[in-house]
Amino acid sequence: MISIKNLHKSYPMGKDALHVLKGLDLEIKEGEFVSIMGSSGSGKSTLLNIVGLLDEHDSGEYYLNNQKIEKLDEKKAAILRNKFLGFVFQSFNLINYKNALENVALPLYYQGVGRKERNAIALDYLAKVGLKERANHLPNELSGGEKQRVAVARALVTKPKVILADEPTGALDSTTSSSVMELLKQINREGMTVFVITHEEDIAAQTDRIVRLKDGIIISDEKTVKNQ
Amino acid sequence: MFDLDRWQEIFQTLSKNKLRTILAGVTIAFAVLLFTLLFGIGNGLKNTFEKQFAGDSQLSVYIRSGSTTKPYKGLQSGRKIQFRNDDTKFINEQFEDEIQFFSPNVERYNVRAVFEGEQNNYTVRGVYPDYLPLESAVIQDGRFISFLDLKRKSKVIAIGRLVEKDLFGTKSALNKNISLDGISYKVIGVFNDPGGDGDERFIYTPFTTAQSMYRTNDELDRFGLTYNPTLNVDKALAFSSLLTKVLQQKHNVDPRDQAAIRVQNYAEGAKNVQQFMMVLNIIILFIGIGTLVAGIIGISNIMVYIVKERTKELGIRKAIGATPSAIIGMIMTESIFVTAVAGYSGLLIGVLTLKLIGKSLEEYFILNPSVETYVVVGATIILIIAGTIAGYIPAKRAAQIKPIVALNDE
User: Is A198 among the domain residues?
Assistant: First the structure.
């Protein structure tokens, strides 16, 4: 599903460049539940941005769903994101003047799905994350856990190939964290590839495979204990 | 193509963000309101001017005589210059091509007019038939003096509308006989004159009749003429100075003597008025365009601010699959929509305001202030173009922001 070979990325910092990713190799198969662990500055967010087509890599190869990603213009990237990827962010990134249902339906709007149809689909996914009765609430009327579940529903609504979650529990307390993780596990059990970035050991421990990043290189890549 | 979904999306964005929508709308509406009011008031000033100068034909030239102020060719100063019938013939022959209407004039002030007990004093003018267009007067009943009247020295008169009103009240004066200083004249016509009340209290009689009645020989008072309308202002002015020169030569007047023969050319006044109007127009245009530009800059500013404020939202939209063209389309449609609606409301308010306060502005020399349809249409088109430009630049920028940068924007 995701295949990365010798990936490099650096950011210009004044005259110098900050070398963030120093030659990563990573293979993620369909249906895997993978977490990327690392402290801040390890390059894990940069990796997620590149995988999520939100940023471009400098060198190396990246295949998403067997499609080589290089020199994408904004339009192509937008279409690929819409088709293959679903995002869950630490800060939820819901549009605050749209209610839960409208937020979930928005990706379908950009696919050109009609209003009635997309609202029906969105409602199904809200039901799936257990928020059917909160459909008409605005994000600021929802708790953090509920917001994140709306975000998960929004990520799922286009039936993507991969869910990319950037610190999905970073802004949540432990109870709501586990409910969001349960949701991600459930999605994964249904066959979805889930790619989580976190710096919390107990969150990573709930996934099937942990990739540890440090200073831009992978220091370990192993299955979690429960699956061995 | 009308895309209901897209409009619903835009209406939602606008209505959920009332403050910025109102802010943008008010800026544009206010600019257009000011523009409309300025334009309307400018037009009102113009209308006043046009009315003030409508009294006489703008092509008209009047020639009067006075006394010399300089000795010339052995003749003393203080000599009275008197026009006579041979001057009429002379001018007519010399300037046949340049002249359109021409009339000598004998004038008598304070003539007592009596009709069945009603009486009043008026100025009586003996003129040619050409005099009517000279005054821009229009016959409303009957006819004006004819050449046959001139030839026969008929005792007929054409009276001003107000003379009829003074002496006849609501009745018609046509074909009635009025006594002028004891001699009976038949009213053959009633005229009105846009020049105002004074011009509608004249009594016109054939030149020959007046000359034989009020003068002992072939003396006359002055000439009125209009020059050929094909002459432009400069040629008309050249014509009147040539006219002055030949008349001065004929009457042995020093060319520098300005009092003896006075040629009053309305073209000069018309030229001044034209220049004044042009300056007025330029000022109005300048201020009007300035106001519009200020409005456009205002809306651009607000659009830049709106896009900045929405950076994160746009980042989210891009992350979940909005293409750059979808982002540009959304922001531009919003911008054009707000500009067009707000601009048009400003225009409507402006036009209504002009209608409401128009009457009360008359005492400030502003007559019937209004804007023409083409200005309204033009301004609306300019607004839509402005909205497009104002929306495009920030929209383009927004579309170019990388989603990752936008998402990190706080």
Answer: yes
- Asked whether the beta carbons of residue B312 and residue A74 sit closer than 8 angstroms, the reply is no
Instruction: List the single residue in B with minimal CA-CA distance to A92.
Output: B316
B138-142 vs B177-180, strand pairing mode: unpaired
Structure tokens at A189: 């059990």
Backbone angles phi, psi at B184, to 5 degrees: -85, 130
Domain that holds residue A51: 30-56+79-227
Chain B residues with CB under 8 Å of A93 CB are 312, 315-316, 319, 407
Q: Is A4 contained in some domain?
A: no
Comparing CA positions, the residue from B380, B390, B291, B298 lying closest to residue B335 is B390
* Residue A161 in domain: yes
Tell me the C-alpha distance between A152 and A156, whole Å: 6
A10 part of a folded domain: no
Residues B156-187: pLDDT tens digits? 999 999 999 989 888 888 999 999 998 999 99
Q: List, for residues B252-283, the tens digit of each pLDDT value.
A: 888 888 888 888 877 677 777 777 778 888 88
CA atoms within 13 A on the CB side of A137: 13
Select the residue of A49, A74, A158 nearest B323 (Cβ to Cβ).
A74
Q: In chain A, how many domains are there?
A: 1
Q: Name which of B313, B325, B407 is nearest A95 (Cβ-Cβ).
A: B313
Q: What is the mean pLDDT of residues A38-67?
A: 87
**Domain CATH code at residue A103:** 3.40.50.300
Most A-contacting residue of B320, B327, B397 (CB-CB within 10 A), to test interface: B320
- Residues of A in Cβ contact (< 8 Å) with B324: 74-75, 78
| pLDDT level of residue A228 (50, 70, 90 thresholds) | very low
State pLDDT tens for residues B136-162: 888 988 999 999 999 999 999 999 999
ipTM over 0.90: no
